[in-house]
Structure formats: structure tokens, C-alpha cells
Amino acid sequence: KVYEDVADLPSLHYDFVIVGGGTAGNVVASRLTENSSVSVLVLEAGPSNQGVLDAQVPFLESGVSDTGTPYSWNYTTTPQTGASGHVFDYLRGYLLGGCSSHNGMAYTRGAAADFDRYANLTGDEGWSWNRIFPYFLKNEKWTAPADDHNTQGQFNPAIHGTQGPISVSLSGFSWPEFEQRVIQTTTELPDDFPFNLDMNSGQPLGIGWLQYTIGHGERSSSATGYLTPDIIQRPNLDILLHAQVSKLVNLTQSRVSPSSPVTFQAVQFRYASKEIILSAGAIGSPQILLNSGVGDRTALGALGIPPLWDLPSVGKNASEHVYSGASWAVNSNQTVESITQNATRFNEAFAEWNNSRTGPFVNPSPEAGTHAGWLRLNADSPVFDVHADPSPGPGAPHFEMLLQPFGAAGTPGHHISITMAMVSPVSRGSVTLSSNDPFAAPVIDLRLLSSDFDALALTEGLKLALKFASAPAWDGYLGAPTVDLAAMTPTELTAHIRANSGPGYHIVGTAGMSPRGAQYGVVDPDLKVKGIAGLRVIDASVLPIVPGAHTQAATYVVAERGADMVKQTWTL
Ligand SMILES: Cc1cc2nc3c(=O)[nH]c(=O)nc-3n(C[C@H](O)[C@H](O)[C@H](O)COP(=O)(O)OP(=O)(O)OC[C@H]3O[C@@H](n4cnc5c(N)ncnc54)[C@H](O)[C@@H]3O)c2cc1C
């Protein structure tokens, strides 16, 4: 059951307490309570997703994701020196479902090489692409698009799951003038921009149709998919909302030494007899560990937090994508602005969604892409003189190119954009504490573009965007660029990128996996916190390096495998 008030909770003792009812946390709660002998409590800081219209209507996503809404943690980053000193809002979902209840819904699994690298970095073959692949299928329910269009040639059915909790579909409303030009470009410039039937095969390189965690015109999230009404009714599952966990309690108060590991058995006010599972996300999980005295001993001591267990990697190694882009006016009124800049059409589109779950509101927020391209730097690029290739292999991208029939928000007229992201960044940031107040916002320093490699690579990426737009397919359609990037020298382009880029909200790595016995890292490959009994982290923070993909699919498979590991430990 879902509880709004702690006083109503029926029990003090649970087998498992899951901190965070977000993307990963709800997967674990749902899977563990499949066994009726197990009791689970989920503690979620935010409110319910039920009745939050903007979390249901894909097009209205920003109403739930943006800073300032009641459903956002309202974080900001520190000034980002590599990005002209800008301070960015750092969006994180503050409601049941976490980021899966407010994200952009793009469904991208990443490259096989991303997961094979996780296997190498952890010494656990179980994280390799081939071994993880069944979990993608287990998570997914392939669904026809809302407009029921013929999807042949737009995806490969052989690589998708059909029975899982999360609906995945192709776009349910089309922008034909734009889409035809994208596809035409793949035939005109096939060397640089080959068509890829399905970017989720493990071989993402090329341009393909985007898939979204949307079913029948509505957002599919961990809250809607893994906490269906019948699952919520399970007598062995309690979910407490408005419950922000400050720190974990060490009931045994045992001395810290490698031979007598610390045992965590409680959070604030509830007992977990088997395990506490931290699923508070890549910001929340390290924050709770640090508040609990698990982290860099010196830094904790300096803040007046008694260090309990020295794990210097907690909150470090934050790995995040960085986005920049280009936009052009177009000689057409067939862009998403025809809805966002016209109140009548906006209201009609909303009414259509209400009546039949069709129309433009079935697609994600206005700036969503119709297609994505996953691209690489040239093998002989001089950028590799600055830093060795950080990508996990030749089948994995350096860049994501998002193709959007929409310009910059607030600019009148009709535009298209090509957003370009550096998805194999060298830069690493951190999540640290500002004080010993466990409820104070953490310090989020992504160190975006702090590596020159990232800035120089993204410069090459923007050149690829310009090349894409130079294909004959766009002749007569593209008007003036919003900013004339083609006229810039490479140095000017790099400076432009530093002044005009931002984060992708894809942070991972702050409780990263490393091999068992390694002196670095936060969790072992079985997601148990190193040196601590009774505590795992199961969420995006355990991925040691950001995949070349939006991160929800990777988070879902971490959670599915994590739940299996917990079941295995306790023979459930
Ligand atoms: C605006 C935005 C757009 C995105 N777009 C996409 C996209 O289009 N495609 C994609 O694949 N990925 C996208 N992502 C990234 C993706 O959604 C995340 O990587 C993923 O969902 C993270 O899952 P998680 O379980 O690690 O954390 P979360 O989903 O954030 O879950 C953490 C949960 O823990 C709760 N919590 C935190 N601290 C505490 C505490 N102290 N006590 C109790 N509860 C707590 C939070 O409220 C939250 O519910 C986007 C992210 C954002 C923010």
C-alpha cells in the first residue's frame, strides 16, 4: 500500500528497506515482493505520481521536470569553469518514479561495448552486453505507436521485449517534412550518416528512429509499470511518501576495521532485518552515504561528520554528458512551434490527447527529437593527440546527434535544431556535502568541459551537425542559422561551445562499481557497499562510466539484475 503519513505505517520491521522510490527503487521493490514471504518498505522523499497530469502527458514533460515545480529537487550545480562559469539547474525527479516520472522518455540502451567495458572494469562477466541483454527484454513491453502507423523499416522487432513492465514505442505523431529530410540525408551522406534500423541492438552507430518509454500515448515510468494497482496492493509491500532519509543508522556501533565491518540495519526510523537498499539516485545515494559517515574520512571530519567507514570514492567520479547544438529558421510552418506558439492549436492538441490519446501530445516535450544519430570522431582526428580515445570501442559513439523539428524555446517563428552531445566524456565531477546538515542540498560539481578533450571533441561534433545540414535534402528548406556557426574558426567554435552548452541529466558513477577487493570504487560487482554488511546501492550511481546513451534503460537493467542478486543472496 502507499502511505502518505508515517503514523499510518503498519510495521516497524521489514526484511528490506529501499531508500528512494525512483527509476531503480521501484523495480527492486516490485521484483522482491513477487515472493510473498518477503516484506519491503520503500521510503520516497517526494509525493505520488498519481494525478500529476504533466507526468502522464508526454508533451507536458517540462511541467514536471523543470526546476521550480513541486516535483523537482531544485538542485543547481556549482559554477562550471569549463562552461564559461555557468550555474545550471540540475534536474532530478522528486516524486514516485523519480526521474522516470519526469524525464525525456528517450529509450536508448547504449553500445554493447559500454556493457562489455563494465564487465572489464568490475571483473564480473555478468555486466557484459550478452549477459545483460535478457534484462533489457525483461524490462520492456514493445507497444504500437499511438497513431498505429506502419513501423516496418523503423525498428527491429527481434531485439525487443514484449512482456515487461515498461512500454516502449516509436513516435506516435509525425512531422513528415522534417522526417523525410532526415532519412534522405542518410542516403545522400551515407558514409558519415548511415541509416541504422535499430539503435538499441548494441550497435548504435548511425541515424535511426527514436524510441520512447511511452505506451498508448502516456508516459511509462517505474511508477506506472512496476507499481501497477495489483502490485501496490501486495500485503508485503509498503511505500511511504514524503519520507526523506537523512542518514543510515549503525545499530551495532561496531569499530571500523576491515575485520569487523560496519553493519547498517536501520534508516532513521525503520528496521531492515535483511538489507537496506539505497536507490536514491546518483545525487541522493552518495549524499546519504556521506551523511552517514561513509566517504572520504578527511573531508567528512572537516565537516564535523564522524567518519564511520573510509570510502574515498563516494560521490567522486561523476560522469555526465554535455550538450550543445545548432538551429536554423525553416521555410515551413510544419514544426512543433506550430503548437507551442499557437494557443488554439495547443488547446486542440490537448483536447485530442484527452479524447483519444492521439495527436502531438503523445510525443515528448517540444524539444524531443524524431531521430538520433550516434557518431564517432574520425580515427585520425588530431583531438586524439590531446587524450586517448575515451570511448569503450569502435562500435560505440563519441557523439549523440538529436534531430528536432523545433528551435530554441521562446524564439518566434519556425525552426529546426540539431543538438550534439559529447557522450564519451573525459571530464569527471563530484557530489559532496556543504555541511553536516543532512537536509542541506549537496554540492554538485559536474566539471563539464573541464577536459580540453571534451571541448575539442564537441567542436568536431558540431562540425558534423553542420555537415548533416549541408546535405542537398535541406536545400530550400533551411533558412538562416540562429547563430552562424559555419562562419566560425575552430577556436571560435570551441569558445562558443563553452558558452553555450549544458548537462544531459545523465549523471552516473558517484557510487561506482569496482572489482571485489579494489581500493577504489564504492560497491562490489554485486552492488554491496565495500566493507559494509547489509547495504547495497542499486541505481544509476553504480555505473562506473556514463554509457553512450540516455541512462534510463541502463538504470532499469542495473535494477533488474540487482533485484536478482538480492534474491540470490537470500535464496528468495
Ligand atoms: C530532466 C531529465 C530528463 C532525462 N531524460 C532522459 C531520457 O529522455 N531518456 C533516458 O534514458 N534518461 C533520461 N534521463 C536520465 C534518467 O532518467 C536517469 O538516469 C535515471 O532515471 C536515474 O534513475 P535512478 O533510479 O538512479 O534515480 P532516480 O530516478 O532519480 O530515483 C531516485 C529516487 O530517490 C528519491 N530520493 C532521493 N534522495 C532521497 C532521500 N534522501 N530519501 C528518500 N528518497 C530520496 C528521489 O526522490 C527519487 O524518487 C533524464 C533525466 C532528467 C533529470
UniProtKB/TrEMBL annotation:
SUPFAM superfamilies in the record: FAD-linked reductases, C-terminal domain, FAD/NAD(P)-binding domain
GO molecular function (one): flavin adenine dinucleotide binding
Residues annotated as binding FAD are 245
List the active-site residues. 506, 550
Tell me the ranges covered by the Glucose-methanol-choline oxidoreductase N-terminal domain, including all copies: 281-295
User: Which coenzyme or cofactor does it need?
Assistant: FAD
Q: This protein's superkingdom?
A: Eukaryota
Q: Which InterPro entries match?
A: FAD/NAD-bd_sf, GMC_OxRdtase, GMC_OxRdtase_N, GMC_OxRtase_C
Q: Which UniProt keywords apply?
A: FAD, Flavoprotein, Signal
Family affiliation: Belongs to the GMC oxidoreductase family.
| PANTHER family tied to this protein | CHOLINE DEHYDROGENASE, MITOCHONDRIAL (PTHR11552:SF147), GLUCOSE-METHANOL-CHOLINE GMC OXIDOREDUCTASE (PTHR11552)
Q: What is this protein called?
A: Pyranose dehydrogenase
The organism is Mycena alexandri
